[in-house]
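It is worth pausing here to work through a concrete case rather than discussing structure prediction in the abstract. The textbook approach is simple: state the sequence, then state the predicted structure, then interpret. We follow exactly that order.
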Amino acid sequence: VTTFLVCFLLIEIYFRAFQEPVNLLELTGKKTTENPMADWATNEPYFAYSALPGMYAGDKSVNSFHFISTPKLRLRKDSGVVRLVFLGESSTAGTGKNLADIETWPYKVVQNLKDLNYSVDYINAACGGYTTFNSYGILWSRLRFFSPDIIIINHGWNDFSYFHESKRQLINRRKNDQGIYEGIYFKGYYQYFKPLKIDAWIAWSQWLSRFRFIFFSEQGVGEIIYDNEFEDIEDELFYADQNGKDAFKENLWLINEYCKIKKIACFFCKQPTLITNKNIDFDDDLETNRIDFYRKEMDHFEAIYTIIDSLAQPHQIIDLTSVSGIEKYFWDHIHPSPEGTDIIASIVADSIRNNYFATANK
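Step two, the predicted structure:
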């Protein structure tokens, strides 16, 4: 017994001293975990989170209504002003790799329209990590009070990445310090576990907690961000790609139907991406998981475009795929560079002018 206790104690000391701590109660939803985005975001009841107001590095701002790269504005718009609202993720918010407010494509869309003497203002309601679920939530719980006239949706990548068959292996395509594109792992991935009655008794032990996860790691009903340091967990989350398609399609349908009821013009962007069949050479000496990831991403974007075609009328669709595959227009696989936002803004502004203002004046 003494030998067993000594061995147990030594193993416990090892894990506490040399391994990242594992909180069993947090991982099973029995204890609130620390918000990993607390330095820039606040929780929201209907759409998960929003950015904290203030000025950030690189001339990046968040206004008092928690909208990123959006100027100060009043709830009630001025008479004769057409209000545009942009829904999307980091590629629309100009985050991921921070763009100054004036380099975001929503800002440039509005400037292009103002140059044509249209009286417009705007809200950039996009935020890093948002899916169509978040955008639908913020639309009916907050944005409707701002009386938008036009909704522009640029979603896709996040909806599908959250349902990727292996979140742990999800790879980003980004340039390294030498300017070469390579695959790197995301900083964190989503993992959650079904609680057991024994958890309350063993949560104090780092060794027993790890032992429990290795042999009893049944999928739970919630999710938290979990650090990559703990590589002993072999179970990964598996979702059929169909889940991502269904969620994306249903949420877009809800947004479109809401806009019909409120008589808001709704436009759907076919989101651009760096990775296309045209600019990926599979003869390169790439590791297998990167090749599989590239193929999977191309399949996902084709599904995104097919869903948009099935939901929207032709005049509602803003096709940004001409931007795809051109390296200078992207920081990485999805986030546009300032040159990219110039082109995107030009395409979007032309579409709004032709399919909203031109028809409104007839």
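Step three, interpretation. DSSP finds eleven helices and 13 strands in the chain. The radius of gyration is 23 Å.
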